[in-house]
Structures are given as C-alpha cells and as structure tokens.
Amino acid sequence: MKQTVPAFILLATLAACGGASTDQAKTEEKKEAAVATGTAFAIDTTTTTVQWRATHKGGFAPRFGAIKVADGSLNVENGAVTGGSFDVNLTSLAVDPASVTEPDKKPADLEGHLKSPDFFDVAKHPTAKFVITAVAPYDSTKQKSLLPGATNLISGNLTLKDSTLNITFPAQITVGASDVTANAKFVIDRSSWGISYKTEGSPENWMISKDVEIGFSLKAVKK
C-alpha cells in the first residue's frame, strides 16, 4: 500500500527566459543539507523528466523544452524522505521545435544561445545541482501550487553556474515499497542566480522574462 510523503524534486533548471505564472518559489540564502538517513533510492534517469517554459519578446513568444537528469538519489526512512540530491545535465538542454514559430529562427540556434556564456555557459558549468535541505507538509491555506494535489513543501539548495540559493516549492510525492514518484510545477527568477543577457536593465534583457516555469516528473527506485 502506498502513502503520500515528503520527497525531493528535481528542479531543474531552466531556460533563460520566463513564464507568465506568479507561483514563485521562495528563494533564500544557501542552507545546510538535510541528513540523508534510511534506505537509498536511485533516480531513474530514463523516466524522470524536467520541463521548462519561458517567454521572449516581452511575453509574446513562448519558449519551452526539456533538460535531462544526470544522476542522483534520495533516502527514505519510516515512509518519509529524509534527504537526497541530484545533478542536472545542462548540456542536454533542448528546445521544443513547436515553441519556435518564427520563420527566421531555428530551435538549434536558441539551444546554442542558452548554452553559451550569455546564459548558462555549459562549457564551464555543465551541470546544475539540487540538494534537499528540508521537507514539510503542504498547507493549501498558506501556500499556492500550480500543481493540483500537492502534498509537501520541498526546500533545497539549487546551484546554477557559480551561484547557490535555497528554493522552496510544493510537490506531490508518493512513496511505495520499491519506488518514489514526485511531481511539481513552480517558478523561479533566473536573475537571482545572476543569469542575465548582456546587462541587467538592458533592452535585450528586458525582452526576456526573468520568470521561468519548471515542471518535473521524477521517479526513484530502491537500490
């Protein structure tokens, strides 16, 4: 019999543009990692997916795609997730061709731009990292979730390029005897990690929304 409990998500990481949602993840300074006790579950990188959605041209041109999880694990004790971490392969960042409708633009060009020093600089920083710092029950009267059925609040340190901040967001978690599944959808502000195009406040940077919507579906299996 499965029960719903805390777990971690992936976050993932994003694109360099923004979504229209106002469901912002709480962002704070880096915190101590949670002590991971109990049984280890390995993230299934073949079934785990991370989606990003953003906008360009002042919100008139949506952009979206996916990023792969490289590896990671989480620990479960007494039916609850106690900690965990995972790496995201930023070199795998992909743009969905359906999101690029302008005849003079190509998805591959946008992918290259997002991976360049203008944004994620994946040659120097090929991975992003998420480390769980806390899990807590979700209270719908105090928090808002883009994903119906949220059960927990997940907090963790998200490292992008050379910057690490702590984010907190709702997630829907289910723990079974041999696996853990987690789903989430939330928004982060790319500029909090110093990711800006050209200079902060420039017309070029203004055209790319700071908000990025992240959605993920994660599965981890007992080692």
From TrEMBL:
Domain Lipid/polyisoprenoid-binding YceI-like: 40-221
Keywords: Signal
Protein origin, superkingdom: Bacteria
UniProt-recorded name of the protein: Polyisoprenoid-binding protein YceI
Gene3D superfamilies (UniProt xref): Lipid/polyisoprenoid-binding, YceI-like
InterPro entries: Lipid/polyisoprenoid-bd_YceI, TTHA0802/YceI-like_sf
Signal sequence region: 1-25
